[in-house]
Amino acid sequence: MKVLVIGSGGREHALCWKLKNDSRNPEIFCTPGNAGTAQIGTNLPFSAMDRAGIIRWSKENRPDLTVIGPEAPLCAGLADALEAEGFRVFGPCKAAAELEGSKEFAKEIMQAAGVPTAAYAVFTDADSACAYVRERGAPIVIKADGLAAGKGVTVAETVEQAEAAIQDALGGAFGDAGNRVVIEDFLPGEEASILALIDGEHVVLLASSQDHKRAFDGDRGPNTGGMGAYSPAPIVTDAILEKVRTEIYARTLAELRKRGITYKGVLYAGLMIDNGQPSVVEFNCRFGDPEIQAILVRWEGDMIPALEACIDGTLSDDLITWKPEPAVCVVMAAGGYPAGYEKGNEISGLDEAVGQAVVFHAGTALEHGRTVTAGGRVLSVTALGTDLRSAVDNAYAAVEKISWKGVFYRKDIAHRELKRS
Ligand code: AMP
Ligand code: GLY
Using CA positions, which residue lies closest to atom 15 of ligand 1? Predict the structure, then answer.
């Protein structure tokens, strides 16, 4: 069996690792991949957005399954294009991926479906947007409508900050993605992520997780793609999960269906939980990074049958079981991230770190036989433990063996839950 994974981050290395361990022992290809995926399979030279290159390679090499990792190719219609050529693809079609590609679309679907989410309005001109913010007051949240690589959201604590964020977005700071801004009420509470596999009809929730979006300890500093995660997130109780299933997934999918859109793949609901009530902060049309690293090490047995069931419309709960042990993922980043950072620094200690933890590569490359940094988020070090404390200790024991010039990471991953336990 041949499996092609599209993308190059920690998520994609974790997917390659999990898929390679399938009992069918597939041959893994990853494009463009990183130094970690190169150890599992064959890296290909096509960027995730190189549709023509990916289709050409697929026609020559006939992969049995293609898994699309990042949102940009999904929102650009890569799944549709590969399916039109007869390939089996895990990932939503372009119309369904709009749930992430346009925040306005996602809000409109949620509002029509009665999904709990913050009240909102959409603007294309700064004067009306600023007038709305002044009327509504702060805190308030300003979001670029389109894909902005996690940078398009400002949680404004004052009206002045909100007005500045509006001017930025509508002034072109995020390119076309910011031509429209979604302005949302601020939701209080604690965040958690629920991802679900969907086969067009059936929904299977994956294990819960919690990300750490801010760059620095104590949830300070700028928002990032995610600096670490743990799974499960006990704040997501069974009662909350039931609400997520019925009030969020069932209603969203029914509304999409009404509009002739079938969702197949994974749908990520970023939640704000307040007094036992989950509300949707965002939808993503793909696996969360770094959440999926923590989730995948807990996934018992094969993953390929569940992905194939999403394609075939035969998804059921019994295709997935979870290890009871909690997992923790610590992201090691390049100094300066999420703003400017250096590339090309040699990473040492990777061999010594192997043991209790799995070191998933994100922004790494091979240069003359050396592994060097090649991105902002460089590694996601992931470990299981008998309890959350030991999972944290196992992950950090490995993290401390690895270094490069300028490395930084959060030292408090899982702090909220550790304080509670
Ligand atoms: P998003 O990219 O939409 O997930 O937003 C990035 C981050 O901004 C989220 O993870 C939240 O921490 C925060 N955020 C977004 N929307 C809201 C909201 N309506 N209320 C409070 N915080 C929010
Ligand atoms: N970790 C958040 C995301 O993948 O969007």
Answer: 281
